[in-house]
Amino acid sequence: MIPRVPRIFRIALSLLAVLLLAGACSKFQTDKDSAPVPGQPIPHPTIVFMTDFGTANDAVAICKAVILGIAPEARIMDITHQVTPYSIEESARFLQGVTPYYPAGTIFLVVVDPGVGTSRKAIAVKTKKGQYFILPDNGLITPVLDRDGLESAREITNTDWMIQAPISSTFHGRDIFSPVAAHLAAGGDFFLVGPEISQLVRLNPKTATVSDKGIQGDVIGLDDPFGSLITDIPGDEFKKLAYRFGDKVPLLLDKKPVTLTYVKTFMEVPVGEPLLYVDSRGRVGIAVNQGNYSKQFGVTPPATIFIARKGLPLAPKTK
Fold it and tell me: pLDDT in tens for each of the 319 residues of the chain?
């Protein structure tokens, strides 16, 4: 015989069941309400903006005004507007470095466009990571696609998504790129940008070469405002040359012999002394502790660099 459960316990169990069911229904409705709906704007969409426009004129402010006029809820983040003018390679390097720290759905607006007004395409790209890129088809997205993969690329031809005024032949950042980024942020369908394209312009940057004598590479940029030299020599390849922290590393910098101390942190050498290190992005760098190497020693990119294997004579790789 099954013992009879007291009435008060039956009531408590019933109330508990009702509360649990109500909680489950509420969570379902909340999840349903918070799920993204195709074609609907995402709350506070993020547009990440980079140009070579500088800050001495009104170009950046105008582009942001165009964006907010279409997508007032958008958050606009800046990478930099101080890209070396016309430097596609530098903007590609900055873009590659920044994108891993933003989530899927982020829209990157990049206007470094020496070919503005020519036959070069204006494009919208979606990577397999789910990020969007609005930019000229001049190769600057190459490193990102090599790492994250291409899902779709489209030529921007939809005039309804462009500024509703005559299109300037020299300011596509205002007239085409900014409004397209804004329409995406406002919930516009990526497929409405224009027709799909199968081939994009690619960069083919030089890379460091390794031999039994050492590594031959290039100075590809400056870490401003500090004036440290950025090279294309991967830190992992440099470490194969057998140098240890504290070693003196002989090298040829722009064909001139230099000896630098290999350190982990800047303060491991006296203030004002040059050094060699592996930077935060995993590349060999050259700096001065609390100084500006580029200004102090007159080295600017492009410049060559050769580092010999430990114990071998300092002689560049023969090409």
Answer: 455 556 665 555 566 555 555 554 444 444 444 344 544 545 569 999 999 999 999 999 999 999 999 999 999 999 999 999 999 999 999 999 999 999 999 999 999 999 999 999 999 999 999 999 999 999 999 999 999 999 999 999 999 999 999 999 999 999 999 999 999 999 999 999 999 999 999 999 888 999 999 999 999 999 999 999 999 999 999 999 999 999 999 999 999 999 999 999 999 999 999 999 999 999 999 999 999 999 999 999 999 999 999 999 886 554 4
Both tokens of 121, joined, read 């395409």
In which domain, by residue range, is 255 found? 209-308
Last residue of a domain, one of 192, 225, 256: 192
Do 78 and 188 lie in a common domain? yes
Pick from 192, 221, 246: which residue ends a domain?
192
- Identify the CATH number of the domain in which residue 177 sits: 3.40.50.10790
Query: 176 and 69, same structural domain?
Result: yes
Provide the pairing of β-strand 214-223 with 209-210: antiparallel
Beta bridge partners of 260: 249
The 3-state secondary structure of the chain reads: CCCCCCHHHHHHHHHHHHHHHHHHHHHHHHHHHHCCCCCCCCCCCEEEEEECCCCCCCHHHHHHHHHHHHCCCCEEEEEECCCCCCCHHHHHHHHHHHHHHCCCCCEEEEECCCCCCCCCCEEEEEECCCCEEEEECCCCCHHHHHHHCEEEEEECCCHHHCCCCCCCCCCHHHHHHHHHHHHHHCCCCHHHCCCECCCCCCCCCCCCEECCCEEEEEEEEEECCCCEEEEEEEHHHHHCCCCCCCCEEEEEECCEEEEEEECCCHHHCCCCCEEEEECCCCEEEEEECCECHHHHHCCCCCEEEEEECCCCCCCCCCC
